[in-house]
Every structure is written in structure tokens, then in C-alpha cells.
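Dear support,

I submitted the protein below through the web form. The confirmation email said the job was done, but the results page showed an empty box. After a refresh the structure appeared. I'm attaching both so you can tell me whether what I see now is the final result or a partial one.
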Amino acid sequence: MKKLVVFTIILVVMLGLAMISVYAAGAEKVTLETRDLDPGEENASGWAIINYTPPDEVGVVGVTVQIQVSGLLPNTPYTFYSKGVALAEFTTNSKGKGQCHANLSIDGDLNPVKEINIWDYAVTRLVLHNRE
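What the results page shows now:
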């Protein structure tokens, strides 16, 4: 009985450490690719940093996504979508640069930000993305 209790404790600790190591891997930088550009956006580029925090006491993981873009149309609104959900809006400055961030809480999904899509404000053109 004592061996079973010790084994169970060791197993629980090892699983906990494995979960923390998945989320504590730090930030991941993702390069955004161009897609459907308007004239004036030929030099569009961008990147995103996805940062996971370890799960809290009930297993909820925090995710922060920071996005930087440049070469887009100046003074133009854009929207950051992931999995079909609008997460943040931003407007580029007079030089076509913009940034935004979103704070998410997830439970159970090891990669909640599977896709990063930057759409024009009317959601008619996918401008930047991280997947085909």
C-alpha cells in the first residue's frame, strides 16, 4: 500500500512537471506571410509572439499574443482573427505600421492560437497569416 501511494505521488508530480514544461517553453515567434494585398501593401510583413503561461490551480492556461505589422496601408483599420474569432482590432499609423495584443484564457487546448489571420476591417481580404 505504501509503495502504491509513493508511486501515485511520483506519477502526479511527473505529469504536473510535464504540463508545466509544455506551457513554460516560453514565447514562440511566428512570421506572418502575405496573401491578398492591395496596391500600396507590396512590402507588407509581420510577426507574432505567442507566450504561454503555466496552468493555474484549475488548469486554465494564459496566452498572450503580440502582433507587429508593417508595410500595410496607412491609417487603416485591421482585425486579428484566430479560429474564426475576432480577438483584437488595430489601426496602422501614417507609415503603415501597427500592433495589437490579445490576452486569452484557455482550458485543455495545447495550441489555442493555431492560426493568426490579419484581415482588412471589412473582412474582405486576408492580408497576413501564418498558415496556408
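Response: this is the final, complete result; the empty box was a page-load delay. The radius of gyration is 19 Å.
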